[in-house]
Specification:
By secondary structure, the chain is of the alpha/beta class. The chain has a single domain, classed as Rossmann fold (3-Layer(aba) Sandwich). 46% of the residues lie in helices and 23% in strands. It has 9 helices and 9 strands. The chain has helices spanning 22-36, 40-48, 51-63, 80-89, 102-114, 153-163, 181-203, 206-218, 222-231; strands at 12-15, 18-21, 70-74, 94-99, 121-125, 138-144, 164-175, 235-242, 247-253. The chain has a 7-stranded mixed sheet, sandwiched between helices. Strands 1-2 form a two-stranded antiparallel sheet. α4 links the parallel β3 and β4. The radius of gyration is 17 Å and the shape is globular. The mean pLDDT is 93.
């Protein structure tokens, strides 16, 4: 499988539109999310006009979880999906939330405590490329808006495949490529004109939101990500465009 590796293999990788040495990307991404953590939820609502909540609810719906299942929400951010997952797996199930960025994970943990979910959800700091979980452990893994920030996406997908149980499902919710030209042009104008200004106004950080816009353009499109997931060992991979392809939900299974 590693011989078919289609992802980052050279000495450099992208950080937005910049090319940086491979070891430099993770610290740069960490600095971005440490900067935006305190305003992350407000900015998500403003940037998407609240639609991100519908995307996340639909992701958990497509997971088709059952009481007693084990679920992992990777790159959990502030834990939006975690509460939905915990509701579906019930008191006999298990939900673990993981994020490599401690400020984001801490904010998510605080939100879960405030909402009364802390006894049902376990928080773990973890790198998607080296997960600290046993083989064949989870019935479901969700990853929302996190994969594009991983240095080695293929390695991360291989790890996700490893920790899934046979018949387990991986759902990757990520920004993608709009399917209509007019929508794509409008989305570009919004991303590179409005979004950095909004970041400056609300979060005092235009550069981080400029990076986030650039990282979306550097992320594999729908078909490319489907191929990447298949190459990492996932089966029956499909995707569904949401909001005209601004976001895509990819789903694959372990067999």
């Amino acid at each position: 499988m590693r011989d078919e590796r289609p992802d980052e293999t050279g000495p450099h990788t992208n950080f937005g539109y910049r090319q940086v040495p491979l070891p430099d990307k993770a610290p740069l991404v960490s600095a971005v999310f440490s900067s935006v953590a305190s305003n992350y939820d407000v900015m998500n609502d403003l940037m998407s006009l609240g639609v991100h909540r519908l995307w996340k609810r639909y992701t958990v719906f497509r997971a088709n979880l059952r009481p007693g299942h084990r679920a992992l929400d990777l790159a959990t951010g502030t834990g939006d999906l975690a509460r939905l997952l915990a509701r579906d797996v019930g008191p006999d199930g298990q939900v673990i939330v993981a994020d490599i960025n401690m400020p984001m994970l801490s904010r998510g943990r605080d939100r879960l405590i405030d909402a009364g979910w802390s006894r049902r959800i376990q928080c773990v700091q973890a790198d998607a490329q080296q997960l600290p979980f046993a083989d064949d452990y989870f019935d479901c893994i969700t990853m929302a808006f996190g994969l594009r920030n991983v240095t080695d996406k293929f390695q991360a997908l291989c790890e996700l495949h490893r920790v899934l149980r046979p018949a387990g499902v991986l759902l990757v919710l990520e920004f993608s490529k709009p399917v209509a030209g007019l929508l794509s042009r409008a989305y570009d104008a919004y991303s590179f004109s409005v979004l950095p200004r909004l970041g400056k106004l609300v979060a005092g950080d235009a550069d981080s939101y400029r990076y986030l816009a650039e990282s979306i353009r550097m992320h594999p499109d729908q078909v490319s990500l489907k191929h990447l997931m298949s190459t990492a060992g996932l089966a029956r991979v499909d995707y569904q465009n949401l909001s005209g392809g601004i976001v895509a939900l990819h789903r694959g299974y372990k067999i």
